Amino acid sequence: MKGTVILACDVYDPNEPELSQEWESNETIQKMEMTILELGYDVAVLSNPTEITSVLCNIPIEERSHWIVWNLVEGYHSPNREAYIPALCEYLAIPHTGSSAAVQTLTLDKYKTKLFLKSFGIPTKDFWLVEDKNQTPPGNFPLFIKPNGEGSSLGIGEKNRILNSKDWLEVLPTLVETYKSILVEPYLSGRELTIAVIGNKGSYVATDPAFVDYPGFVYSDLVKSKENLVESLDFLVPEELSKTLENYAVQIANLLGSSGYIRIDFKLEKDLPYFLEVNATPGFSSVYSTLPLLWEKNGKSYSELLKQCLELGFLEYQHHHRYKYAKDRNL
């Protein structure tokens, strides 16, 4: 065997409503497990925090370089929630897939990510952070409002498109009470696009971008379902726009210092692309997740995607200086 892969995940539980969309289906985990087994690894599926930490702590120190944790844990509420697994693995000197805790924490905060990337010239429209339910609209209508620290389109519906003061007063208070921190942007009327970047620092490759088409005006939590694929990807992106997005995507990966894989979303206004957000813990379902579909458009199989992501995780462990403290102390 090549080593052992731990699939660390939140598996769907109907008795855990807080997880909402931030979970993986049993079908997804089973498909990942089967594919990784076929690649020659042992696999363990763990979904309980105490179980995950106990297993990792009890891996013999001299064997830790042969284990790797696939980070699928997204949790809820905490601004650190997508960084749980990377931070723990780095501290224990155990390889993991995907980006570091620092990248995960930054990209979960849409406002801070926009501030950072805008300072380097990545095109964004104006944006504001609102944490007071009595705040007056900071910009001109139409506006779009959404939770600042959520994924999977949580808290987003058709009503998030704010056309006037009445809409603002109706929608904002509930969002603030539920999600605390709200991102406000001008509403962009053009099509949405998504693109993935695979690789570690110095070896990034962008996939072809795709338009994301969905019913209605808003990519809502009803559209972005893990029950079925409601949205569709259209890869007929004009060549000039495609090249522009690929350049922006690689630039963003370099600025963030991402590892393994990220997915980046843009939206058009008057045919110009504007950055929306980065997802550093994208889904890996072969049925409903966008990143595998983008990858397969490049003519590569699901198995090849998982294989490369694992190899990138081991390479990061071998070469990145962020593991030095743990290696020195633990090994």
Automatic annotation (TrEMBL):
The keyword Thylakoid does not apply. Residues 114-311 form the ATP-grasp domain. Gene3D superfamilies: ATP-grasp fold, A domain, ATP-grasp fold, B domain. It comes from the Bacteria. One of its GO terms (molecular function) is metal ion binding. Transmembrane segments: none annotated. Keywords: ATP-binding, Ligase, Nucleotide-binding. Pfam families: Dala_Dala_lig_C. Coiled coil: none annotated. Belongs to the D-alanine--D-alanine ligase family. This is D-alanine--D-alanine ligase.
